[in-house]
């Protein structure tokens, strides 16, 4: 059986324009055509579209998806098994976040107590959504080293990261140049270099700038406390400039 582009769009629930775009970039280009030149999607094309949708659900870029599914080593069965594993992980994280939201609602009503650590339960610190920007700034080697360390991050290390962020959040209403603030930001600098790669003072300062110029960073960090991203950025800049001047 073969489907026209509109039929596929209606079946899947995506726009005709999206399918045309996939065709234009070589992501999904059905080879069969009608006598009048219309593309026809076969069963194999639909199976490939399914793979694309799975990868999109897992936040892969179209460029990365194209590279994966058109690789000579691509295995559909293996890919489905990987999708299942990652989607279960995603579901478990969403369940934890839902529990966090429900407990936070009760906390605001005064029904339960909630520690600072509990307030960020469920957030995933291993997902580097900013990898492309980081690679452009600091190169592939540094990022690969960081990814290896993140992959092997222990529960103790993850807890340490949370503790540092919570500590910084508690200081965000005082001067980022204060002795207390600088001691805490120094601990963050040492934590990054110990567990996530090698950061020079310049790279550390640049990372702090990304905390405020990239709204994704700001939103993620400010979950610990409104204004934390701005505070950390200023503290990191002062720390880097002072240390470089020594």
Automatic annotation (TrEMBL):
<dbReference type="InterPro" id="IPR036244">
    <property type="entry name" value="TipA-like_antibiotic-bd"/>
</dbReference>
<keyword id="KW-0175">Coiled coil</keyword>
<keyword id="KW-0805">Transcription regulation</keyword>
<dbReference type="InterPro" id="IPR009061">
    <property type="entry name" value="DNA-bd_dom_put_sf"/>
</dbReference>
<dbReference type="GO" id="GO:0003677">
    <property type="term" value="F:DNA binding"/>
</dbReference>
<protein>
    <submittedName>
        <fullName>HTH-type transcriptional activator mta</fullName>
    </submittedName>
</protein>
<keyword id="KW-0010">Activator</keyword>
<dbReference type="Pfam" id="PF07739">
    <property type="entry name" value="TipAS"/>
</dbReference>
<feature type="domain" description="HTH merR-type">
    <location>
        <begin position="2"/>
        <end position="71"/>
    </location>
</feature>
<dbReference type="InterPro" id="IPR000551">
    <property type="entry name" value="MerR-type_HTH_dom"/>
</dbReference>
<dbReference type="GO" id="GO:0003700">
    <property type="term" value="F:DNA-binding transcription factor activity"/>
</dbReference>
<keyword id="KW-0238">DNA-binding</keyword>
<keyword id="KW-0804">Transcription</keyword>
<dbReference type="InterPro" id="IPR047057">
    <property type="entry name" value="MerR_fam"/>
</dbReference>
<dbReference type="Pfam" id="PF13411">
    <property type="entry name" value="MerR_1"/>
</dbReference>
<feature type="coiled-coil region">
    <location>
        <begin position="80"/>
        <end position="118"/>
    </location>
</feature>
<dbReference type="InterPro" id="IPR012925">
    <property type="entry name" value="TipAS_dom"/>
</dbReference>
């Amino acid at each position: 059986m073969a489907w026209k582009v509109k039929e596929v769009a209606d079946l899947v629930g995506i726009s005709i324009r999206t399918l045309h775009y996939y065709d234009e970039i070589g992501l999904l280009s059905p080879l069969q055509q009608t006598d009048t030149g219309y593309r026809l999607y076969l069963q194999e094309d639909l199976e490939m579209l399914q793979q694309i949708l799975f990868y999109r659900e897992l936040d892969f870029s179209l460029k990365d998806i194209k590279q994966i599914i058109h690789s000579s080593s691509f295995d559909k069965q293996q890919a489905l098994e990987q999708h299942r594993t990652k989607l279960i992980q995603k579901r478990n994280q969403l369940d934890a976040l839902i529990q966090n939201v429900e407990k936070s609602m009760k906390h605001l009503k005064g029904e339960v107590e909630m520690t600072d650590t509990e307030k960020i339960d469920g957030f995933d610190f291993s997902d580097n959504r900013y990898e492309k920007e980081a690679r452009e700034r600091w190169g592939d080697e540094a990022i690969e080293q960081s990814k290896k360390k993140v992959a092997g991050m222990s529960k103790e290390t993850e807890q340490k990261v949370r503790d540092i962020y919570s500590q910084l959040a508690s200081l965000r209403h005082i001067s980022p140049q204060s002795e207390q603030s600088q001691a805490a930001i120094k601990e963050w600098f040492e934590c990054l270099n110990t567990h996530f790669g090698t950061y020079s003072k310049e790279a550390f300062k640049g990372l702090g700038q990304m905390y405020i110029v990239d709204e994704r960073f700001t939103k993620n960090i400010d979950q610990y406390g409104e204004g934390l991203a701005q505070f950390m950025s200023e503290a990191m800049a002062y720390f880097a400039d002072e240390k470089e001047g020594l």
